[in-house]
Design a protein that fits this description.
Structural class: alpha/beta
Number of domains: 2
CATH class of the largest domain: Alpha Beta
Number of strands: 14
Strand order of the largest sheet: 10-9-8-11-12-13-14
Shape: globular
Helix content: 25-40%
């Protein structure tokens, strides 16, 4: 990533779509504040609350007419409430005549429902994309989508930013000399290969099969060597932690020395916390794309801050600079 950002309120920054405005929903206000701190921009005040009938009420305290607005709202649990809040916010901004509306969705809920993999099921990831677009978003900024082709579900520009480089920097800082990157399943093999190349480690793969109902998996074979090695298991999210924990136990059974879990999104749906507490992980490294409640914190969890990364991307989108160049500097 490049050097420190300019402040988002510079006059020269206001040439394309008006003044930069940051807003936040209720899903992850702490991350929104970290983004604002990086940019030197206070969050725009708004009133968000639920009526007794569970309907969401929302109102901007000041107009954003003509402004370049970035609304920060991951659609994590409760996914339906947070998604609906995002849609209402976009509609509100559009009706207030915002100059441009960018939905900053660090975690894209329903991303796993990206294909019709069995009869009579929806493609909900596409439906959510249509809803965000129809609500009035002009652009979407996300992090580590479940599959890259979700970008193609949108008819508006999409930036899919990765935390892989931050995670790679963390691994390099551990001084591991006999490490192996392990993909927990063949579906993540390409991402794991890219990660292994970045940190100059060999790659190992676990072949697994998922039950027809998608509720369980079975590890069948290990492709590669982990005996006597420090194993880095990489995935884009930890949900119920079943896949990650099974991969760790599988590696340990085949002679792995220490095992690390790395993921961008710490979803931690039940029973993830219990599984992770009992798993043989040296460290569990995630980011703060979604909030981690106190009851889900564990002593060996380390949370990396993506606020500066997202802040720099927002600055570049606002000023018309290349986002891709961030990772080539």
């Amino acid at each position: 990533m490049g050097s420190s950002a300019k402040t988002g309120t510079d006059a020269s920054d206001d040439l394309l779509y008006g003044k930069l405005v940051l807003c936040s929903g209720t899903a992850n206000p702490a991350l929104a504040n970290q983004i604002g701190a990086y940019l030197g921009v206070d969050l725009h005040p708004s009133d968000i609350r639920q009526f007794p009938n569970s309907n969401t009420f929302m109102k901007l305290d000041r107009s954003v007419r003509g402004c370049d607005v970035f609304w920060i709202q991951p659609t994590c649990a409760p996914a339906n409430d947070n998604l609906m809040e995002l849609l209402i916010a976009i509609d509100m901004l559009r009706r207030d005549s915002a100059g441009r509306i960018t939905a900053v969705v660090p975690y894209y809920g329903y991303g796993r429902s990206d294909k019709k993999d069995q009869p009579r099921v929806p493609i909900t990831a596409r439906l959510v994309a249509d809803m965000i677009t129809t609500a009035g978003a002009d652009r979407v900024l996300m992090m580590d989508l479940h599959v890259g082709q979700i970008q193609g579900f949108f008819t508006i520009p999409v930036d899919d930013i990765t935390a892989q480089h931050m995670l790679a920097d963390w691994v390099r800082g551990q001084g591991i000399t006999n490490g192996v990157v392990l993909s927990p399943d063949l579906g993540r093999a390409k991402d794991a290969r890219n990660f292994a190349e970045e940190i100059d480690m060999p790659l190992a793969l676990i072949e697994k099969r998922r039950s027809r109902d998608g509720g369980s998996t079975e590890a069948l074979n290990l492709i590669g060597e982990v005996d006597g090695c420090d194993v880095v298991i990489i995935d884009e999210e930890i949900d119920t932690a079943g896949t990650m924990v099974r991969a760790a136990n599988f590696a340990k059974a085949r002679g792995a020395r220490r095992v690390y879990a790395l993921a961008t999104h710490a979803i931690f749906s039940p029973p993830a916390t219990e599984r992770l507490r009992e798993a043989p992980f040296e460290r569990i490294v995630v980011t703060n794309t979604v909030p981690i409640p106190a009851e889900k914190q564990l002593p060996n969890i380390e949370v990396l801050d993506v606020g500066p990364l997202l802040g720099e991307v927002i600055r570049r989108i606002h000023t018309g600079l290349s986002v891709g160049e961030m990772f080539n500097e």
